[in-house]
Prior knowledge:
InterPro entries: DUF3616. This is DUF3616 domain-containing protein. Pfam families: DUF3616. It comes from Chlorogloeopsis fritschii PCC 6912. The protein is mainly β. The chain has a single domain, classed as Tachylectin-2, Chain A (5 Propeller), CATH 2.115.10. Helices cover about 5% and strands about 50% of the residues. The protein has 4 helices and 32 strands. A hairpin with a 2-residue loop joins strand 5 (about 45-50) and strand 6 (about 55-65).
Amino acid sequence: MQDSILLNQVLLTFTNSFKEHREDLSAVMLTDKKYLWLGSDETSSIERLCWDNHNFAQHKQFRVAEYIDLPAPEEEEIDIEGIDYSGYYLWIVGSHSWKRKKPKPDKSDSKNIKRLTKVESEPNRYILARIPLVDGELQKSCTHPQDSNVQLTASKLEVTQQGNLLMEALADDPHLGFFVKAEIPGKDNGFDIEGITVYQNRIFMGLRGPVLRGWAVMLEIEVESSQTGVLRLKNISEEGRQYKKHFMFLNGLGIRDLCVHGEDLLILAGPTMDLDGPVQLYCLPGGVHLQENVLHSPELVQKIPYGNREDHAEGITLAQDLFGEPSLLVVYDSPAKARLVDDGGVIADIFKLG
């Protein structure tokens, strides 16, 4: 294990209208032709930047509501916590979490204490969706570029009273069901998805929480189309469940993002509670081919720097296409003020990988 080696920094330049949200980036994915796709945990849109003279610019925003039907008005955030690309689809996942109101400096102690009693959830947070992505543009529906007999269609996991089919399936899970039914907020070690990666037909989602006696949890699912625009879960578990659970020892940390590297899984790990760090990068060899009911101990690869109430690493994506050597691009929530450039820019880091 080593400290991170900073190879480079790149400027991400957004339009002025996105100025405030450059400080709450929560998901990132670099696709071919050097498009950078990003999500914020405070919006219901997907952002695209283009590689331009060793930085990312030419910001274009895609409203998710233009591609799939949201269960609530788009003014209510999806809380996008993961983005990935596979098979001409861009995948996004919301946090699937409850949230607790936080104290505000302009309110009295008594009012802030009362705020800490209030927990809520929002229907848009339970979005797991895939949107066709062809030639750098999102589409609601289009013909598969390599097979004219296949139609690509924007779809989401079926919505239910419990949020969606995944939450319905997890409600009786012996490890996670209590957290789901008790409606424990994500930052209180409650159920909270942060990170998605897709390998062939398998979808992996990392849980920031709950962390169970020091063990983090990763979910694996497979989906199928049941009707236009709707996805359902397949039965994939040996026990007949619609999901698999994989337990990871990450030194007591939760999962903050996932990334496929060949057939290995890179895991960005950080605190499940409202803490600055530690933040660490792990590698799980052969992580896309995991058996159930096995405890895994991924290899600690390197530490990721973090700040004092700032610079919280939230998203990772492979970046070797940018500078020609194995590397990882990292974006931060609550970036340090030194990272903010003009009215729309924020600096991301490129770390050496391997």
